[in-house]
Automatic annotation (TrEMBL):
It comes from Vibrio albus. This is Phosphoglycolate phosphatase. The keyword Iron-sulfur does not apply. Specifically catalyzes the dephosphorylation of 2-phosphoglycolate. Is involved in the dissimilation of the intracellular 2-phosphoglycolate formed during the DNA repair of 3'-phosphoglycolate ends, a major class of DNA lesions induced by oxidative stress. GO terms for biological process: carbohydrate metabolic process; DNA repair; glycolate biosynthetic process. InterPro entries: HAD-like_hydrolase_sf, HAD-like_sf, HAD-SF_hydro_IA, HAD-SF_hydro_IIIA, HAD_2, HAD_sf, PGP-like_dom2, PGPase_prok. CDD domains: HAD_PGPase. It is an enzyme of class 3 (hydrolase).
Length: 226
């Protein structure tokens, strides 16, 4: 798939721009322990993350990638309320950008590309995180996981971006680390660029057959001749 016509680049956040698992794991662990469950580890959360906060918490309560359907909605709701408070209180102090992310984003911005964030993470937390890392001014749109009725791998958010900016699918690139990102790109008929270092439930990202695969973000600059 050619990238010569790319005008807008949509980035996933967690596992793509930012390693957020240390803070997520802390908040999830505090939440489930407050409900009387055994602690969870950062390693477990790395395997469970990627489909939004509610599914992450469901997996933590189930101790499995598959959420136990017997979990009561009231318990799920209580876990989410606790998580929201613990995650807000953590200040995202343990999260950090991956190598070459900052310089790559700035170079793409300077080259005239429109940049957007499309994440399954609850949108309420995203602006503060971007501001902490001085990235807020680089993005024309920031879409959180609960801003639309459906989240990745559904293409709803990507299709909204195409409509808003009057672009065709061949003019947008989706950059992510998981099969949700790759599938969202396929479902929106746009190209995908996948990183090998993120969160993909323990599966090699090449299994999802992205259009391009890289070990670090800076490889995107070479691909685009930016």
């Amino acid at each position: 798939m050619s990238l010569e016509k790319i005008k807008l680049i949509a980035f996933d956040l967690d596992g793509t721009l930012l390693d957020s698992v240390p803070d997520l794991a802390l908040a999830v662990d505090q939440s489930v322990q407050a409900l009387g469950y055994e602690p969870v580890t950062e390693e477990q959360v790395r395997e469970w993350v990627g489909n939004g906060a509610d599914i992450l918490l469901g997996r933590a309560l189930s101790r499995s990638i598959t959420v136990d359907p017997a979990i009561e909605p009231a318990l799920q709701k209580q876990a989410r309320e606790l998580f929201n408070q613990f995650y807000a209180d953590c200040g995202h102090a343990l999260s950090h950008l991956y190598p070459t992310v900052t310089e790559t984003l700035h170079k793409l911005y300077d080259a005239g590309y429109k940049l957007a964030v499309v994440t399954n993470k609850p949108g309420t937390f995203v602006p503060e995180i971007l501001q902490q890392h001085q990235l807020s001014d680089l993005f024309v749109d920031v879409i959180g996981g609960e801003d639309f009725p459906l989240r990745k791998p559904d293409p709803m958010a990507l299709n909204w971006l195409l409509d808003k900016h009057g672009l065709s699918a061949e003019e947008m690139l989706m950059v992510g680390d998981s099969k949700n990102d790759v599938l969202a790109a396929k479902n929106a008929s746009c190209a995908s660029f996948a990183l090998t270092y993120g969160y993909n439930h323990g599966e090699p990202i090449e299994n999802s057959e992205p259009d391009y695969i890289a070990d670090e973000m800076a490889e995107l600059l070479t691909l685009l001749n930016a």
